[in-house]
């Protein structure tokens, strides 16, 4: 922690200032968060117990849903509590922890999406080698690599954050801790730090997005060689992946590849990828994947039957 800091606590401006609007937001966002936890939790449970979902694609989907729960839970519970509070405070240590875990789970999700794109590439473009290339040990290594990549990224973020001196004021124009809002209240020039974050977050997001889009272009091009039924099934799966990629990367690139501002629009965009997108992912994957829908119905049927006995 920077020795020149004399601030031990921050105050969030929040999303809106009007108490009535804040209470309305609480009523809207609480069910969204609960749906996020239940929906993603149901996918994790279904993938864990269903014998029909043993392929690498569902192995990665289970971990993606687990990351979604964690990613959302870093921000949303505190956000919901603050919507009902007159003064929205967070300690300096809590702020740093929020930055670390928010970026840790965010980048882990990016890397898992990349791994899932690679899995689809091998399955569609190199089907004869699929079982060898995507063996269970390889899948575990790819997941472990995603977690490791998230840690490395977050360490850079937190090393930048702990060097920032705060002399006051201590009001953050946001509803959670991130580096751009902190730069505004740091009592030092943050040009170098901003450049580091641009590379570590902004350019990383852009290049990851371009890589993913390129991967799916190659996949879709290779689908010409498959049967009509194979194309239909592959297109359905890839459409789900592409939708999730666009929903996740679009807002993130918008925020991290442009100069920070105090516009409410920035905070509304942040709401989309911290609150809304994690809820949409299980819906997208379930609605467009017949195998997942069948497995979920079987699981719910077994649970209901067990409850009646």
UniProtKB/TrEMBL annotation:
<feature type="transmembrane region" description="Helical">
    <location>
        <begin position="26"/>
        <end position="45"/>
    </location>
</feature>
<feature type="domain" description="G-protein coupled receptors family 1 profile">
    <location>
        <begin position="39"/>
        <end position="285"/>
    </location>
</feature>
<feature type="transmembrane region" description="Helical">
    <location>
        <begin position="57"/>
        <end position="76"/>
    </location>
</feature>
<feature type="transmembrane region" description="Helical">
    <location>
        <begin position="203"/>
        <end position="223"/>
    </location>
</feature>
<keyword id="KW-1133">Transmembrane helix</keyword>
<dbReference type="GO" id="GO:0005886">
    <property type="term" value="C:plasma membrane"/>
</dbReference>
<feature type="transmembrane region" description="Helical">
    <location>
        <begin position="235"/>
        <end position="256"/>
    </location>
</feature>
<protein>
    <recommendedName>
        <fullName>Olfactory receptor</fullName>
    </recommendedName>
</protein>
<keyword id="KW-0812">Transmembrane</keyword>
<keyword id="KW-1003">Cell membrane</keyword>
<feature type="transmembrane region" description="Helical">
    <location>
        <begin position="138"/>
        <end position="160"/>
    </location>
</feature>
<dbReference type="InterPro" id="IPR050427">
    <property type="entry name" value="Olfactory_Receptors"/>
</dbReference>
<feature type="transmembrane region" description="Helical">
    <location>
        <begin position="96"/>
        <end position="118"/>
    </location>
</feature>
<keyword id="KW-0297">G-protein coupled receptor</keyword>
<feature type="transmembrane region" description="Helical">
    <location>
        <begin position="268"/>
        <end position="287"/>
    </location>
</feature>
<dbReference type="GO" id="GO:0004930">
    <property type="term" value="F:G protein-coupled receptor activity"/>
</dbReference>
<dbReference type="InterPro" id="IPR000276">
    <property type="entry name" value="GPCR_Rhodpsn"/>
</dbReference>
<keyword id="KW-0807">Transducer</keyword>
<keyword id="KW-0675">Receptor</keyword>
<dbReference type="GO" id="GO:0004984">
    <property type="term" value="F:olfactory receptor activity"/>
</dbReference>
<dbReference type="InterPro" id="IPR017452">
    <property type="entry name" value="GPCR_Rhodpsn_7TM"/>
</dbReference>
<dbReference type="InterPro" id="IPR000725">
    <property type="entry name" value="Olfact_rcpt"/>
</dbReference>
<keyword id="KW-0716">Sensory transduction</keyword>
<dbReference type="Pfam" id="PF13853">
    <property type="entry name" value="7tm_4"/>
</dbReference>
<keyword id="KW-0552">Olfaction</keyword>
<comment type="similarity">
    <text>Belongs to the G-protein coupled receptor 1 family.</text>
</comment>
<keyword id="KW-0472">Membrane</keyword>
